């Protein structure tokens, strides 16, 4: 009998799941549109992305990338300052690319985003998930992100775990289902969330002046928007170094 590869569950919740089987990842998504966006975005992005092995309804198979991530939210960074700078340079290359013809996760209208933030803040307090002063303080900080921006080709969910490097070279970026037109500083903020010590390295690699107050505003805004969702889908935003600690650090 042939040896059977071990199946590793990478992420799993009610909307989607990612499994690893040997050197292949299987992404199962209830929303076929997200898979379609992911494949199209990877074909357009001027940065290293995984090879698409095959695609069927609601399932996408991609090859594993060489190297490792630069760390994880809530954990230590395993990447050197040069690796973080290389990631910043790769992100800048993406943002300078021609725009895809669809809006992205961070490309929502300002009114829509502000209304969503207000609703979420109210629920966080009403449901007793977070104290009112913590929510109020971060809601004020988040205000700086709610300003007009020039659309860029953004990844839309550029968590640290989605960027792979081998030494000081970026080998690939994964999970493009939220890609589209959006705010470039949202990508930078998502990538450095919980790793503020490496923000300067990323900005140095990015190679242009950025508004650090807006990046910090996105840290607060993103964290406020996801705490309740994470809690309801089996994740722990209260773990050390994760979203709630990011909010507390703004106090």
Automatic annotation (TrEMBL):
Q: From what superkingdom does this record's organism come?
A: Bacteria
Which species is this record about?
Streptomyces prunicolor
The cross-references to Pfam families, in alphabetical order and at most eight, read:
APH
Xref: InterPro entries: AGP_Transferase (IPR051678), Aminoglycoside_PTrfase (IPR002575), Kinase-like_dom_sf (IPR011009)
Please list the residue ranges annotated as the Aminoglycoside phosphotransferase domain: 41-207
Q: From the Swiss-Prot or TrEMBL record, give the protein name.
A: Phosphotransferase
